Amino acid sequence: LSPGAKMGCFTFIKVMMILFNLAIFLSGGTLLGVGIWATVDQKSFLDIFGTLSSSILHVVNVSYFLIAIGAILLVIGFLGCYGAQKESKCLLMMFFSVVLIIFIAEVAAAVVALVYTGLAEMLLTNLVTPLLKEKYGVDERLTHNWNVTMKEVHCCGLNNYTDFTNSTWYQKYNTYPEPCCKDVEPCNATLAEESKVPGCFDQILEEIRTNSAVVGGVAAGIAALEIAAMAVSMYLYCHLDQK
User: Fold this and answer.
1) Would you say 77 and 32 are in contact if contact means Cβ atoms under 8 Å apart?
2) 162, 198, 168: which is closest to 182 by C-alpha?
3) Cβ–Cβ < 8 Å for 160, 197
4) Strand intervals (E) in 115-194
5) How many CB atoms sit inside 10 A of residue 9's CB?
6) Which of these, 42, 53, 77, 207, could form a disulfide with 24 (CB 3.0-4.6 Å)?
7) Is the dihedral of CA 149, 153, 159, 161 positive or negative?
8) What does pTM read for this prediction?
């Protein structure tokens, strides 16, 4: 290519890099704002996004998750956008490094999720089940989140109804939560056993498997964007000295 063509190609890629990362920056700011809103006024947030958010609230606090993702996107967007605008090799390399770390973490998480599903279930059981036994029926917010989750996902506890055996709730009311017996009252051990309502962990896994094509497509799309972003940032980094 002639020097003019190379310069035009460099300028085009630089502009695309700026616009792409500006979109990431604005998206990060939006997520950060929603996360802060969810933290400050969680009741209104759950009223609007209840079905979506409550299904994972027992594993991850949605508001803090949104704040974390928003902050990461803000950093990535700033580094990419400002680095390309100022043609800073330092910022472009930082952008490349951050995206590479996130990409490696995502690949590692995917491998762990595929290979060590049983380990993930064991860890969640050891963390969440004691919390259910102690706090369900005592902590109003936790109880509300779990009730919405169990009704929307049609599940009972993390593993099954036995998560509530000898719990604070069971000792107080001598029954299991209604979703454990398909909303039939009173929900005793015999009825819960006959109802065979699956645990929420199994249900969520089943939903992921059912929508595996969509989940895989989204994951592949994100990975492709990250690889493209790293390639473009490295292109700009390597060609700055040749301008």
Assistant:
1) no
2) 198
3) yes
4) none
5) 13
6) 77
7) positive
8) 0.60
